[in-house]
Each structure stands twice: as structure tokens, then as C-alpha cells.
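Objective 1b. Sequence-to-structure analysis of Osteomodulin.
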Amino acid sequence: MTPSHILTILSLLLLSGVLVLSQDYEANNLDYDTDDSLPEDPRLSVPQQPDYDGQLMYSYECASECFCPSSYPFAMYCDHRKLKAVPNIPRHIRHLYIQHNDIEEITSKPFINATSLREINFSYNKLQSSKVDKDVFSILKELIQLHLEHNNLEDIPSPLPKTLKRLHLGFNKISKIPADATRKLTKLTVLDLCSNRLTDAGIKGKILSDMKSLMQINMCNNKLKSMPADLPESIQQISLENNSIASIPAGYFKKTPNLLSLRMPHNKLKSVAYNAFNLSKLMELHLGHNQLFKPFFVPRTLEHLYLNHNDFKDLNISLMCPSLDLGNPNMLTYIRLDNNKLRGPVDYYAYRCFPRLIMIFYGNQRKDDEEDSETKKYEKPDRPKRPGGNKAIE
């Protein structure tokens, strides 16, 4: 083989080696894009659910009559603005505060797009039942809390959404609870009807028992003469102050074993069954300003007992606490006894039977023929006179 042949073969081998090296280099760089953009993260390629709340955070749509804070655009504040009509409510608003205005009428039009509303405060307006559209609230499928206190309503708006949990109707002119107004409110936990015109005839039947989740019912300052019938088992607090209830039926609380608090001051109770309050969870019992004179059984769980302004002449602690259980003592810590007709100190046995007593408020006691000092307290006072004149201030 001549030297020229050897040089030719060596040249071919070198060229073939360069080609192989070039192929390897190109093969190792096939994963890179030809442009300058960063490679796509495969974790981000999965379709994501749109974050509507994140988008809404940058939406500042608000009724011109109201204020929507940029820090929380889901709330619209229309209170204290002398409004006579409800402004249009944007779709994203969840909390509407429109209290302290002059609104008499509620139509469905402003609520057409308000599908996200969860809370409405219409208190301190001039709402009239005849001017509230029938279905104005029922279309709000996410509504949880509704404030309608301090208006001129004569009826409970109906129908109401099934989602409602808290309904405040105090300080109106409501005299009855129609069955169709409460039948579907199975999630309602708080019903406030204080300072209305409720009568026994207005809450007859099983109107209240359909509300299976009801925990608190307020019917203070009404015209009731008897205990409301058929309360649901879920009830935990009953407020019946300032009515004309004269008695509590025997066994009344057997249907409400979860009761924690009973408030019945300023009624006409003269006596209650000895075991009327034998409940396993009762913590507060307020019976002040009645006409009670016989002691009754005090349950072990009771912590606060109000018996002031009654007609007790003696307090038989042995009847109130018939047995001692040092391993499971009575929880009573406070008892109020002022303005009764007691003639001596409370039996020292009270501190043995109620070892957790912190205070027995004895106060002033009345004589048998003495007028209740609180009677004068609630008399209408004379109007103050204008300075330098005899004309009373209107």
C-alpha cells in the first residue's frame, strides 16, 4: 500500500469521527426549544378550576348610592343615607347593609342579579308588609342571615329561602306566625320576634316544631298568656320576658331536653310544678318579677337563679336541694332573692347543698302589704320642663 493510500484512509476515518461527534451533540440537544422561552412545567399543563373569588377581588362594581370598600368588595354599605328605594345589587355582593333608611317598599328588581347574597340588614326602615314582593327573598338561594327588626311589618315575609339560619323580626307589628312562613325553615337556628303583637292564637299548632334546627327563640314583649306550644327538641334558649304567662304546664320541658337558658321575668307566674325544671343541661333560670311563692327543684347544672321580685316568704332549701352528692355537686353560683317577703336569713344549709355559691343577693325585702318598689320604677315619668318656663319638652 502506497503512502498516498494510507493518508486517504486516515482522512476518511477522521471525517467519519467528526460526523459521529456532531450527531451525538445534536441528539443531546433535541430536548431544548429553538426559541428563548422557558420550558413548560408539566404540572401547570393540567386544566385548573377558575378562581372566581380571586377574580372578584378586583371587581369594584358598586351601587352609586352606596360604598363598597376595596379591602372587601363583597360588602355594600348603604346605611344611614336617607334612601327610599333599594339600589341595584351587583352579582358579587354577599353582605348588604341598608339599615337606618326610609325604605317602605322592597321589589324583586334590585335583587335579580344578587345571587351571592348571604346577609341582608334591613333594620330601622319603614317596611310595610303590603309593599314587600312575595318572592323577593325566596330567590336568594344562599341567604343565611336576614335582619328586618324595627320596621312596620304586620306579617312575616313568605316564602323565605331554605338556607336561612338567622331571622330577626323584633320591633314590628306581627301578631301571628303562619304555617307557610316557617314550614321549610329547617336550617333556622335563631328566631327573634321580640316586641311584636304575638298572641296565643297566632302561634297555634305545630308551627314551631317544623324548625328542626332552632336553638334560640325570642318572644319577649308580646301578648302571650301561655307557653308557646310544640317547640322543637333542638331548642337551647327561650326568652319570654314581658308577657302575661300565668303557668307552665306539667311536663312542658320534656320535649326540650337540651334547654340551657329560660328567661321569663315580668310575667304572671304564681306557681310551677315541683319538677318543672328537672333538666340535665339547664344553666340559667330567670323568673324575676312574677308572683311565685313555692320552692321548686333546682337541677344540678343550674348556675344562675333569679327569683327577685316574687312573693317568697321562706325559702325551703331542703326542697330545692333534696340530696347531697359530694362527687357530683350542684353548680349553682349565684342566686338573687331581693324584693320578696323573706323574714330571715337564708338557711346555712344552702352553702352545703350548693358548695359553689359565690353570692346570695338578699337585698331589700317587702312586707306583705307593701307595694312592689319596682311598680313605681316603671311608671311613666313626668316630661322635663324647658329651662325658664313651665311648658314640657315635647
